[in-house]
Amino acid sequence: MSRNLEPYQLIERSIIKKYRKVIWNPFISAVKEYNLINTGDKIAVCISGGKDSMLLAKLMQMLQKISDIPFDLIFLVMDPGYSGENRQKIESNASLMHIPVTVFESDIFAVANSTDKTPCYLCARMRRGHLYNKAKELGCNKIALGHHLSDVIETTLIGMFYGSQLQAMMPKLHSQNFEGMELIRPMYCINEEDILAWKRYNNLEFLQCACRFTESCTMPDNSDVSSKREEIKELIKNLKRDNPNIEKSIFKSIHSVCLDTFPAHKTGGEKHSFLDNY
Asked: What does the angle CA 114 – CA 146 – CA 138 come to, to the nearest 5 degrees?
C-alpha cells in the first residue's frame, strides 16, 4: 500500500503511525492544554525552512483537516535575503510536503549586516516584527512558531546560568507591539530528538541555518559554530546518561514553580521581595 502513496502522504503517515506517541500526541496535547487554537482563528504558520517550522506546518495542516474547531491557516515564508540556493530549498521542501506557502521579501539581512550591534539579535527582533506585520496585513490574529520542548528547557537553563534569572518560554503570549495579535507554540511538548528522528526516517533535508553571516552552518556538524545553546545541549546530553528523564523533570519544574520558597520574584517587570508579606 505504501508503494502507492506520494511522498507527502508517507510523511503524514509517519507522523500518525510511527511517531504518533512522540510527535502527534504531544502536539495535540499542547494545543488542548494551553488552549492555543480557537474557533475562527486565522493563523500564520511561520516557516523559516528548518526542520522545526516545516514539521509545524505539516502538523497544523493535518490538524485543520480533522479538527472540530474551524480555523484558517496561511503558511508564511519571509525571505530576509536568502541565497538563491536556500530560497529554492525552502520552496522545494514545501512543494514536496504539499504545503502551499505564501512568500514575502524583506531586507533584514542587509540591515542587520550594516549595524554595529550584534547582527543575530537585531535579525531575530526584526524577523518577529516583520512576521507579525505581514500576518496582520493578511488578516491573521495569531502567528505560530516552531519552538519545541528542547527550546523551552534550554532557554530556561541559559537564563539561569548566563542571565542570572529564572525565566522560561511561554506556550503562547500576546504581542506588545501588534494589538490583537498572539504568538502560539504548538510544538511546545515535542522533544527535538524526536523531530530529528522523524526527519531522518523520511530522508528529509532542511536548512539548518540560512543566515548570510554564517552560511557555513547550513552544512551539518559544523564544529566552528559555538554558542551558549550548544553548551546547554551538551550539558543536558551528559546529564541524561545518569538520568534519562532529566528533560521531563526540568519541563515539569517550570509548571510547578513554588513562589512561596523564593526570596524574590518579578511580575509584569516589577520586582517583589518575600519581605513584602513576611
From this structure: 75
pLDDT in tens, 208-246: 765 544 443 333 333 333 478 899 999 999 999 999 999
DSSP 91: H
State how far the Cα of 14 lies from the Cα of 24, in Å rounded to an integer: 10
Query: pLDDT at residue 12 above 90?
Result: yes
Phi, psi of 106 (to 5 degrees): -145, 175
Q: Closest Cα to residue 149, out of 27, 47, 263? A: 27
Phi, psi values for residue 75, rounded to 5°: -95, 105
CA distance 247 to 265: 24
Residue with cell 559555538: 226
C-alpha 45/C-alpha 58 separation (Å) is 10
CA distance 187 to 151: 10
**What is the distance between the alpha carbons of residues 109 and 212, in angstroms, rounded to a whole number?**
7
Number of Cβ within a 10 Å radius of residue 238: 10
- Over its C-alpha atoms, the chain yields an Rg (Å, rounded) of 20
CA distances from 38 to 35, 43, 239 (A): 7, 10, 38
User: Could you give the CA distance from residue 105 to residue 130 in angstroms, rounded to a whole number?
Assistant: 10
CA–CA distance, 14 with 213 (Å, rounded to integer): 35
Q: Are 108 and 130 in contact (CB under 8 A)?
A: yes
CA distance 198 to 11: 9
The grid coordinates listed for 85 are 540556493
All three cell numbers of 197, joined, read: 528522528
Would you put residue 41 in left (φ > 0), alpha (ψ -120 to 50) or beta?
beta
